[in-house]
Amino acid sequence: MDDITAKRLVFTMLDTDGDGVVSKDEYSARAERVARATGRTDDDPLVIAARAAGERAWAAMDANGDGGVTFEEYAAWAGAEAFDTVCEPVLGGLFDLADTDEDGALDLLEFTALRTALGNPVSNIESAFVALDGDSDGLVRRGDYLASVRAHVSGENSPMGEALYSIGKAGAAGGR
Model pTM? Predict the structure, then answer.
């Protein structure tokens, strides 16, 4: 999958109202949805950390400060460098929220809660989990998850990206 296609898929998940612009509220809602999905309270230190990381990411994404990010702005900004400096702490924070037993890995239930809260189609989540569970121990480790997302947004080979999106494009069940 090329990087523009990957960015378009991510942008579509961020633009929850489908108006072609990601608002600060849409972006910030990700941490709130994951917190609710995992039963965490507003004063949980992991919720506070995820919100703070999201605020920093939003400031970087909305470079012109107009309160919205179009696909063109997002596509110009997103990529490996943005992931390494801005997105990894956000996605790591969201992963940590979903890691309810705090073991540094997500089981299928935790992974499903995270990916559903982030707007991935439920029908594709299990395939993404299998793609990331390289040793078949029933766990997706934080580093593997983040590396796969980074590869996806950078237009590199991403097993999770392919699993999450390839089946969805074909209209069948399974995949990411």
Answer: 0.84
